[in-house]
Amino acid sequence: MDGKRTSNPLYDPANFNDFLRRNKAVVCALSASYVSTFAGYPLDSIKSRLQTTKTRITVPQLAVLVYREEGLMGFYRGLWIPLMTISFVRAASFTIYSRTKEIFRNYDILCRNSIIDVSLTGGVSGAMSGALISFCSAPFELVKVRRQLEYTIAASKGISLRKPPGTLEAVKEIYRNNGFAGLYTGFRLHFIRDTAGTALYFLEYDGMRHLLGRQRSGEQGPTPAWLPIHSSLVPFVCGSLSGVTSWALIYPLDVVKTKVQQRALAGEPYRGPLETLHRLVRGPDPNNPKLILSGIARIYRGLGVSALRSITTHGLLWTLFDMTAHYIDNLPRSSGKDEQY
């Protein structure tokens, strides 16, 4: 022994740190998404059930009903699909979003230090991300909806389930009934929702981060006097608010999408988006229409639990994203390497 520490040929810390810096957006998005998806999934499951139930029921009553009929696992039915796929989708989404912003910066487009330029850059980058990712995420979300609404879909077919089919069985049934195209049931609504929703989300997030002191370089400056919070809370506040407000704006579209997909999965006759929306608002009987406000309230049923889910999911997502990014930025660099990532 000469007193010198021998290097491990299978693990080189310097190269590993460089790898993390080169793939910072992917690493941050994956690590943050796993935790935030797991934390918010039970609320997402309750949201899907509230959107499709035909009887008035409160969130606590529905939670008790799910627990009584399906146990604790009922809240996590179909979890592994979003846990694995949505995490990778988010990683791809953040990568597209980051690369699009880099293109704007490299070509000196919308680069003024103003909230308008910052927000528009985030919005356009988000729209590009949402549009491209929707082609990959649509089949996974359809299967997730199928798994979450197993009992509802079975009841509409007059079937009593003792044990719901697993995820692979659900995929096989969709493919068997409608072929590969069946995995893209409701895709147009999914595409519009993801494109508009992601654009609004990143537009609001980047705009709020700018208002709360983030520089165009990405460094967090002091927060304004009208919101004197610690800088570590800024990602959670901005992520929560942008998640809640953007979701509230596209929530009716998500309700219509879920209803259209539910009818298709249950084998019921096709009903278009506009007709679905009209029936949700005014009711199924044209001779006895519901009050518009009552119909709007029905559409927004479950918004409260969705808002709570958004606060939990997006607040944690951005907090963990920034923490991971800060950790990677402060990793020691190997000697002779001055690259910036």
Written account of the structure:
Belongs to the mitochondrial carrier (TC 2.A.29) family. Keywords: Membrane, Mitochondrion, Repeat, Transmembrane, Transmembrane helix, Transport. Solcar repeats lie at residues 20-103, 117-211, 230-327. With 341 residues, the protein is mostly helical. 68% of the residues lie in helices and 0% in strands. It contains 12 helices and no strands. It has helices at 13-22, 24-52, 59-70, 80-106, 115-148, 150-156, 167-178, 187-211, 234-265, 273-282, 292-299, 303-329. Helix 2 (24-52) runs antiparallel to helix 12 (303-329), helix 4 (80-106) packs antiparallel against helix 5 and helix 5 (115-148) crosses helix 7. The radius of gyration is 23 Å and the shape is globular. The two termini are 38 Å apart.
| Tally of helical segments | 12
Structural class: mainly alpha
In total, the number of strands is 0
Mean pLDDT: 86
Q: Describe the sheet with the most strands.
A: none
Termini separation (Å)? Answer: 38 Å
Binned strand content: under 5%
Secondary-structure element string: HHHHHHHHHHHH
Low-confidence runs? 337-341
Helix content: 55-70%
Overall geometry comes to globular
Compute the CA-based radius of gyration: 23 Å
Question: Which helices and strands occur, and which strands form pairs?
Answer:
Blueprint: H1 13-22, H2 24-52, H3 59-70, H4 80-106, H5 115-148, H6 150-156, H7 167-178, H8 187-211, H9 234-265, H10 273-282, H11 292-299, H12 303-329
Give the gist of this structure:
Its main location: mitochondrion. With 341 residues, this protein is an all-alpha fold.
